[in-house]
Design a protein that fits this description.
The protein is mainly alpha-helical and 67 residues long. Helices cover 51% and strands 0% of the residues. α2 packs across α3.
């Protein structure tokens, strides 16, 4: 499936560029198209993972219980 979909990469990006540059498209569609283009070109921005209330790192504890 990946190989099949890969055949359309250029066409898909060209379609996104067409939407992004089209002044007659709704602004939200244009922004979404530009975002998709940038994500493909540069990768998505890293997402921080934080603990409760957005402070500090997430702490994971593993508790083993005897059966």
């Amino acid at each position: 499936m990946k190989v099949y979909a890969g055949q359309y990469t250029t066409e898909a990006v060209d379609g996104l560029v067409s939407i992004a540059r089209n002044d007659e498209m709704p602004p939200a569609a244009r922004v979404m198209a530009w975002r998709e283009i940038l994500d493909r070109a540069n990768g998505k921005a890293p997402q921080a993972i934080t603990g409760p209330d957005g402070e500090g790192p997430v702490v994971t504890r593993v508790i083993h219980e005897d059966a």
